[in-house]
Amino acid sequence: MADKPAMKPWIEKIHAYVPGKSKGADGRELIKLSANENPLGCSEAVLAALAEPAGPARYPDPDSTALRAKIGEVHGIDPERIVCGTGSGECLHGAVQAFAGPGDEVLFSRYSFSLYPLLAHKVGASVVMAEATDYAPDVDKLLAAVTERTRVVLLDNPNNPIGTFLPRAEVERLHKGLPGDVLLVVDQAYAEFLDEGEDDGGMALAAAHDNVLVTRTFAKAYGIAGERVGWATGAPQLVDALNRLRGAFNVTASGQRAALAALADQAFVQTVRDANDAARARFVEQIEALGNSGLRALPSEANFVLVLFEGRLTAEAALAALAQGGYAVRHLPGQGLPHALRITIGTSEQMEQIAAILREAAEAD
After folding, report:
1. Beta strands 126-130 and 150-156: pairing type?
2. I need a labelling partner for 107 at 20 to 30 A (CA). Which of 144, 161, 251, 261 fits?
3. Which reaction does this enzyme catalyse, per its entry (predicted)?
């Protein structure tokens, strides 16, 4: 007889999620461009909402009723088809937990959000990674990886950490090629950074089909990562599944107030999008100018750029140079990208400084 509780074998396989660093090896606080947070912060309306008396002795609305109504108004969705979560991560976890388990497979592109393998391992499902094309998700390769054991397909679009975007026709083709009993989850954490009118069609698929779930977050463009608010939409039975699994009173009262205020200030989101577009374009231009040194910026539709180091300057050396210059960015050896750094788009001044540090490091190498 065992003398202590035994952890489930699939839980033992899990490596805890590793957040972006904010300190150097010497303990110095660095400017954190490693977690894709919003350099402009959040809307003044959000700050005002958070300053209101919260009544912390009372539980929040367990169903996030007002927030779901506002999300429905902004996106043209029936609030009954919306569920809110503690970040979009809770919604993603619920989707995998509800439809996959031991003996099943969870499929996604090789270079996808680092949370995805953890979601599969938590429920004892097998991880299957479809090969990418120049690092980006490839619909043909995803479909070729589907087996009779596939239960959930996760697609982050725009992709994290690559930054690429699958257009509507490709997402529709992916969905059309999947068996009806396979759940397609379209993770749109970075959708607010897309150009006006650019849409992968995920919401329309979720409205029309029983096997599509779309997730969103308030952590990125809305700038309220600290409040941990996300949401998902899909067919009634999918929303019902997530409601069964989510935590009771999962979205705090302050989080609900902050998200409501954020949704009401779409002008702030446009300001964030414009600033991100300008700073990202300029940064990519500067990295491309270093192409002879082996640096390459992959195309990005998000608030970060993945820079590949394919010459003499290594990602490790660049990481150290940036830390010396006061910046924390994301090195990704654990995701099969030891030669890459994911760099969050900060302010224009910050991106100019990062480009200068990389230029100096490349020229000195």
Report:
1. unpaired
2. 251
3. L-histidinol phosphate + 2-oxoglutarate = 3-(imidazol-4-yl)-2-oxopropyl phosphate + L-glutamate
